[in-house]
């Protein structure tokens, strides 16, 4: 069966091999070939098989990102919004300030949410320019001694991506990598904490991966609720309370898939191929334009429009009848957005480019 191409920003496309494995495992989950007598949704998270699965998922993530030994990996709930709160709850010490870069809607939300927990400082914002450019580190106004510096490395709605993480900071760097996590190698040792909701590149909604440097775990006061407390969750290997078992299982399968495909170097090669093809088609189109400056364009979320709301709506409908789904831009931005995560084959982008050409010709 040929499925339509799903350009959804998240929850998003999963690799067909992962979907097939889920289908095979549904009636009875087998761990290393041994049937568990129930589906993955029905087994105890305290059972040996699930404990082995989560340990192996952590190891696969460590292998893929070359995570140093002095970092913990947590599988948490509450999504990226949960991290908007947990980061300041755990890391923003009383009497200190946290620095925030606002490069799109998600970092703006994180900045606003953090204000509920302590003192924050805006180091730069791209809002007045419609987030078409990421404010250059040279132009940031940093505070003297912040608790941490926060960035969103891929802004899903506006389609910009930090291609080189900031360096030379005077505080731990916190990165919301949700919408390009595992699409390229990342220098974990340059960050204090990286987090990502799984539902774009790595799995279904419900689990958020947090990679946090050991020395930061001691910052949080004991008064924080246990499920939000990084150190407490780390001490319990993410199994303090019932974890999102199914989401972790699918994530584990996807991590294996990424490894089998050739790891993050191969994911990056594919992301570059897909996004270059699409941006080239937009840049040479007489009808569509991509607003984000070339140096800051996201390889995952390609934002474009025709400059006319009705034409955009017609194009989205035109694509849908051709099996190219979920291309409508985010409600705050409008236009179109093609989210082309790890699981999107190049054939999907070729089909979208062909539809653009056909639409333009008929226009
Ligand atoms: C970069 C980024 N951060 C945060 C979020 C919020 O994620 P959630 O809805 O899982 O809390 C999203 C959602 O799309 C996102 O793309």
Characterize the structure shown.
With 363 residues, this protein is of the alpha/beta class. It contains 9 helices and 15 strands. Helices cover 34% and strands 16% of the residues. Helix 7 packs parallel to helix 9. 44% of the residues are buried. It folds into 2 domains: 17-260, Aspartate Aminotransferase, domain 2; 263-362, Aspartate Aminotransferase, domain 1. The protein has helices at residues 16-25, 48-65, 79-91, 105-114, 230-235, 245-261, 263-283, 309-320, 346-362, and strands at residues 5-6, 30-31, 34-35, 71-76, 97-102, 119-125, 149-152, 154-155, 160-161, 173-176, 193-197, 208-213, 301-304, 324-325, 336-339. Strands 4-12-11-10-7-5-6 form a 7-stranded mixed β-sheet. Strands 1-14 form a two-stranded parallel ribbon. A two-stranded antiparallel sheet has the order 2-3. The protein binds pyridoxal-5'-phosphate.
Descriptive labels:
Aspartate Aminotransferase, domain 1; alpha/beta; binds pyridoxal-5'-phosphate; 16% strand; 363 residues; seven-stranded mixed beta sheet; Aspartate Aminotransferase, domain 2; single chain; 2 domains
